[in-house]
From TrEMBL:
<dbReference type="Pfam" id="PF13561">
    <property type="entry name" value="adh_short_C2"/>
</dbReference>
<dbReference type="InterPro" id="IPR036291">
    <property type="entry name" value="NAD(P)-bd_dom_sf"/>
</dbReference>
<dbReference type="InterPro" id="IPR020904">
    <property type="entry name" value="Sc_DH/Rdtase_CS"/>
</dbReference>
<comment type="similarity">
    <text>Belongs to the short-chain dehydrogenases/reductases (SDR) family.</text>
</comment>
<protein>
    <submittedName>
        <fullName>NAD(P)-dependent dehydrogenase, short-chain alcohol dehydrogenase family</fullName>
    </submittedName>
</protein>
<dbReference type="GO" id="GO:0016491">
    <property type="term" value="F:oxidoreductase activity"/>
</dbReference>
<dbReference type="InterPro" id="IPR002347">
    <property type="entry name" value="SDR_fam"/>
</dbReference>
<keyword id="KW-0560">Oxidoreductase</keyword>
Amino acid sequence: MTSPAPAEPSEGFAGRVVVVTGGSRGLGRAMALGYAARGATVVVASRKLAACEAVAQEAAAAGAAKALPLACHVGRWQDCDQLVRRVLEECGRIDVLVNNAGMSPLYPSFADVDEALFDKVLEVNLKGAWRLSVLAGDRMKQAGGGTILNISSIAAVQPTARELPYAVAKAGLNTLTVGLAHALGPEVRVNAIMPGAFQTDATAGWPEAAVAELSGTQVPLRRLGKAGEIVAAALHLTGESSTYTTGAILKIDGGLAWAPA
Ligand SMILES: NC(=O)c1ccc[n+]([C@@H]2O[C@H](COP(=O)([O-])OP(=O)(O)OC[C@H]3O[C@@H](n4cnc5c(N)ncnc54)[C@H](OP(=O)(O)O)[C@@H]3O)[C@@H](O)[C@H]2O)c1
């Protein structure tokens, strides 16, 4: 008996406009290049324009229909408004929004978490995603379709003392994902990915012993993830192979978390 033909392996994004926040490095850069390779118009947004320009060049070389670098501090409401305005001016539409920008500063103890740090963590990981999703989601709904992907964290369901404000923000992002899926359907789908520990700048500062313990004993796959290992899931959740999936929260963590997603 012959096996059925394998499903088309790659999602096509030709004609789609994809905005990736935090697209200049790490997971965001990997996803931006993944969309570029599938023919999307890719908007690379982060605080540092030069870094976005460099990734936009890579995206163009990878096959993007167009690659647009834009500076945006997602923790600032007016920057979010400006980002959406510029994308609509330059590209005419938004089909996919990936709320990936995030940060998790280390702190010695809870007492060292001052108001500025707490506010910044909430602003970058949660408030920006709220504002961008509301603006882009409204536009997608009017246009008759679109998808939003929030990059959360396994910390949302398995919080540790070393990153508690961040875990709180990412738990909020999970709640936002489900709430927006209900609010923006049926035209717009909203999903999230909870990465475990990936090798990026965000984890480069972790103590060696902590990384060794994590990958040596806690992660069933016995290593940290590589940025490229998030791309297929992002394409799936924002593309045509997941048309009955919304409000879903997928963990990609090498098996780290015990808690169900
Ligand atoms: N790596 C992990 O192990 C891991 C685990 C769980 C979840 N995550 C989540 O995955 C996402 C990406 O993480 P990553 O590891 O790729 O991080 P990363 O390598 O540190 O990159 C962070 C990206 O976000 C941008 N960014 C930071 N603050 C920003 C702001 N205020 N406004 C706009 N852009 C901002 C950075 O660019 P600029 O500096 O130019 O702004 C950069 O492009 C984050 O949401 C993170 O919480 C990562």
